[in-house]
Amino acid sequence: MLVLAAVITVIVVNNSDDSGNHRAQPSGSSTSATPSESASPTPFGDPTPTATPTDSDFESALPTPSNGKIPFYLLKVGDCYDRPAGGGGTNDEASCNGPHDAEVVSTHRLGSGLTTESDIKDKASSLCRNELERKAARQSPGTAEGTYIQYPNLNGYKLGIKTISCSLAGNSTMTKKLTKPLS
Looking at the record, which segments are called Disordered (predicted)? Predict the structure, then answer.
């Protein structure tokens, strides 16, 4: 599928769960943890997201998968997922109440005018950085030690895929799972 070919996955995160609920519920408690370093460089730039998508966006015209697979541009805050073997931009839905690779902390829209893959990666990292650091700092030590940022490649961006997904993961090498919703 053209859309799948138009997607690049940046930072490693994996997610799976044993219950049917793939969206985290708010937690009443939080603890402190040190945020981990991102697998991508920490770019500088405007961390303010652009406007939310409209019905005329390319992404909203795409069919919604119903087979437990979810493209990164359809993820919502609190969604938990597993990263499929081989990577790519389509994740496997997972329950937040069991082992899973990642949980979405925030989503943003890329603005217009980006002209290279590097521009897209740098802007995505910039938009995600502060929220991922804040959320990681509220986790129990050793819980969320990795970040995973998904964004379109240049072809996907030119087609109109502008949403990025910012997630926390067990670690950046996909060898450790989250086991409950983030706090």
Answer: 16-65
